[in-house]
Each structure stands twice: as structure tokens, then as C-alpha cells.
Amino acid sequence: MEALLCSEIPIRSSINDLSSSSSSYTWPIIMASSSSFPTLMDKDNIPRFDWDLSLSAVVSSPSTGSDAIGAIEFDPSGEILATGGIARKIRSYRLSSLLESSSRDDHLSCICTPAKLSSLKWRPDLAGRVIGSGDYDGVVTEYDVERGVPVFERDEHGGRRIWSVDYTLYNGSVVGASGSDDGTVQMWDPRNERLEETVRPPGGGAPAAICSVEFDPFGGPSLAVGCADRNAYVYDIRRLVDPVVVLDGHTKTVTYARFMDQHTIVTGSTDGSLKLWDIANGGRVVRTCRGHVNSRNFVGMSVWRQGGLVVSGSENGEVFVYDKRWGEPVWVRGFSQSDRLGSDRRFVSSVCWRQVDEDWCTLVAGGSDGVLEIFSGQRS
């Protein structure tokens, strides 16, 4: 069972195809039959993109070796951007400087870490100062970004790779969570070192890897968990006994689980689909989105809650944006060409929306070659 499980888990540092196209375009609407063609009566059901989104900056990788980006995170203010990956470095940037700089590679700080990184998350109570990381050695480490030093460390996953970390402010306290190859979600209070809770999703056989954890960003008591057993789970953190909702519908590993709102969760899977779930009604599938290519890698998935948009990376080297109202992508952009890796070895490995604006949107995508591309837009 263990060997089978490992073959199902996507590899962040795997290399796949990259499209040679770098232009953006609207995804064509493909109808199943002539009777499905839209009419004037249902024109509102035609997928459309309500934003003018264009490339604003390209940040080259300063590394000469492999530098696949596994995590991109904005701090709560939306001003500071941090990246991490297999180069064992946390780089932080000021967004305004990236958009204004001609060199496009200036960073505020660069922290060297002892292991490859799979996940980053800013501490919500120490905005822009402390960032938590999950690494391939199974350790959660928090770093003071200004001083570049570790300030907190947890090693509760038995050396098994951590795929995801998250924090929440609940009832005035900070709670952290990490999900790992060991099949557990560990929850803790960063103010002390004692273990608070261990969550093991249900299922027979060997424990399935936990690929994604996210607390309800609206302050509720829910925790979303994406798992290699092909399911996602929603827990009430006040009573971590059994999941309150099981999201059963993907056919392969669930790599991401993100809240669109308090009642809707978006999941991504290596079955090549995204799904929107109504968790207020027992976990009903609201919509399935397809278009991007994803069969074995972590390609990144991020939700922009104010705009109702979901972005996914792809193994063909393109960025796909979906509107929660439709199943087809509304915007697709090919990554720029790079000399660092051949076109058959590059893919989009991480994506992130900036959350703070309503009338402007900012999207950041990272590649398996360590290159960042920043897209900015406003309502059309």
C-alpha cells in the first residue's frame, strides 16, 4: 500500500511540458450539440472574463541550479510577496518595487533554509514580520523575515514531508496547522510547544498523505483538508473527531482545498479538474472546471474571493483562470520562454491571487524554472 500511495502523490519538483505560446486569450466555448448553443435569452450564461489582465513584471530566478517555486504568498496587507521552493530559500519582495523596477529581481530579503520548501504562510498576528514554512524534512519553521532568523520550530511529523501549512485567528488566539505525508494534520498554538491536536482523516488501509490544509479565512471554525485518498474533508476545529462534511468526487489525489466563501470550497486534483462544493448542503458539487493539464504535479491553485475567480497552474506551461459561474476557463496565458530549462521541462508550479482589492486584481504565477510572472488588471 505504501508504494501505491507514493505513486499517487504528485511531485512538486517533477518536470513536464511547456507550451511555446506566451499570449493570453479567451478559452473557446465548445458546445456538445447544436441545441446547446446559447441564444439571446441565455446570453448571461456565456463564459466571459470581466477583467483586463496583462503582464506587468517578470522576476528572473537568481539561482543557477534548480529553482522550482512551490509556494507564493502575499502577506495580509498585500504589499509583501514571499516565495519558496526546492532552492531552499525564502525570498520576499515589495510588490510596488517589482512593478516599478527595471531589473525585476530585487528582493527585500533572502533566507536560506535547511530543506526544500513546499509551503509558506504569513502569521496573521505578525503581518509582514513572521512567515511559517513547511519543508521536505517534515519540519514547520517560523522565520523573522526582517532579521532572517528562525523564531519557532515544530517537528511532529516523524520526518515525513509537509505539503501545507496555514494559520487562523480564532477567539483571539493564533492556531497553526500542517499536513504531511504521514497522513496527519497537526494543529498547535505557536505560543507554546505542546501539541494541541492530531487529525487523521477516515479511510481504510495505510494513511493517505495530507496535501492541503486551510482554515476558514472568514473567521469561522472550519478547516478544509485535501487528501491523497481522493477526498477532501471539512472539520469543525472545536470538535476534531470526525469530519462534518466529506467531499467525494475526484478520481485522483486532492492537491488543494480553498474557501471561496463560508459556504463554498474549491478543490483541485491531479485528475485534471477543479470542483466547487456547497458545504452548507452536505458537500454537493456545484460545478466542475476543466481545461488545465494536471496529472501528477502540484501546479498551484488560488482563489480570489472578492472577484469570484480561481486560478490554476498547468503542466503545459499555461496559467488558467476560471470564473466560479462557469466550468470553462475564461482566461489563459502561456508562460514566457526561458533558457534555463527546455520547453519540454517547464510547467507552472505555483499561483497566488492578491486578496486586498475589489476593483483591481493582481495575480502572481511561478514556474518550475524559478521565474515569477506578475499580472495586473482592472474591471473591463
From TrEMBL:
Any one GO biological process: response to UV-B
Pfam families named among the record's database cross-references: WD40
Main subcellular location: cytoplasm
Gene Ontology cellular-component terms listed: cytosol; nucleus
SMART domains: WD40
Key words of the record: Cytoplasm, Flowering, Nucleus, Repeat, WD repeat
PROSITE patterns: WD_REPEATS_1, WD_REPEATS_2, WD_REPEATS_REGION
InterPro entries the record matches: RUP1/2 (IPR044616), WD40/YVTN_repeat-like_dom_sf (IPR015943), WD40_repeat_CS (IPR019775), WD40_repeat_dom_sf (IPR036322), WD40_rpt (IPR001680)
WD repeat start-end pairs: 177-198, 247-287
Location in or out of the cell: Cytoplasm, Cytosol; Nucleus
Matches recorded under PANTHER family: WD REPEAT-CONTAINING PROTEIN RUP1 (PTHR45389)
Protein name: Uncharacterized protein
Native organism: Microthlaspi erraticum
